[in-house]
Write a structure and sequence with these properties.
By secondary structure, the chain is an alpha+beta fold. It is built from eight helices and 13 strands.
């Protein structure tokens, strides 16, 4: 079995009201976001790290799918693993119950924190302040969308010390049944920064781009298209070589934010004005 030393910090969490589960991670380890996070809507989320056992992801989700609670899944996975003392694992199940595990051979500082709907853990950290910051920030951002909460947790953890070796990669995964692209995907956000001197800042930048393209503005916040705005739209589209808003939006990957001609998403309008 392939093993990787993913010395890092992560938070696994869910928003039961929104029906979302997610993981955020930062590490001095190339492409950590491709290995650490696993999640399935209605089932749970998992982070596997330290001398990471990649099978903890799919095997853990299968156990959660079978109805085991987070702590029972942790016990089942580590008991069957001879290398468990070098592993670190965090799980949140479909009910929001959480569990974390840190083997005795994980490099200091190593440990975790759990609470309702989250598990935070890290190893080779400057101090326990890093995971304390993950936990405290998750609790203090309860009114925000899950993806934004997880990003805030990463920033706070880094400010508190972070990985003792520095930064390199970060990742964000959030899932929701039918909550992704065109309501046909369960993946709401799946973004990674594989190699960057400031990976959390870069992840936040990419997330802002993601929200501009794939985010949803409530319909009651759209701008009604009166005669004056209709003229403006035609003129701006004409300068860009388009006759219809849908055509331009498709080129800019904003087609999910266009619906009819009676109102326009303010994000779409702002981008059209910027370009024209």
């Amino acid at each position: 079995m392939v093993e990787a030393v993913v010395s890092t910090y992560s938070i696994v969490a869910c928003d039961l009201e929104a029906g979302q589960w997610g993981v955020a991670v930062q590490s001095k380890f190339l492409a950590a976001g491709s290995l650490v996070p696993w999640a399935e809507p209605g089932v749970g989320a998992i982070a596997t790290q330290a001398y990471a056992n990649p099978r903890y992801g799919p095997d853990g989700l299968a156990l959660l799918r079978d109805g085991l609670a987070a702590d029972a899944v942790v016990k089942r996975l580590v008991t069957a693993d001879e290398g468990r003392e070098t592993r670190q694992l965090g799980i949140v199940d479909g009910e929001g119950q959480s569990a974390t595990f840190t083997g005795t051979d994980c490099h200091e500082w190593a440990g975790g924190r759990t609470g309702p709907c989250f598990a935070a853990q890290g190893n080779i950290l400057v101090s326990e302040d890093t995971v304390d910051a993950l936990a405290a920030t998750f609790a203090s951002t309860a009114r925000q969308p899950l993806a934004e909460r997880l990003l805030a947790c990463l920033s706070a953890a880094q400010a508190a010390g972070g990985d003792r070796r520095g930064q390199q990669a970060a990742g964000l995964l959030v899932v929701e049944r039918g909550g992704g692209y065109a309501q046909l995907s369960d993946v709401v956000v799946d973004l990674r920064v594989d190699d960057h001197p400031q990976p959390i800042d870069e992840l936040q930048r990419i997330f802002r781009l993601h929200q501009a393209i794939f985010g949803k503005t409530p319909r009651d916040q759209w701008i009604s298209v009166d005669e004056a705005l209709a003229v403006e739209l035609r003129e701006r589209l004409g300068r860009l070589g388009f006759q219809r808003l849908e055509e331009w939006a498709g080129v800019e990957n904003l087609e999910e934010r266009v619906d009819g001609e009676d109102a326009v998403d303010p994000v779409v309008l702002a981008e059209l004005r910027r370009q024209s």
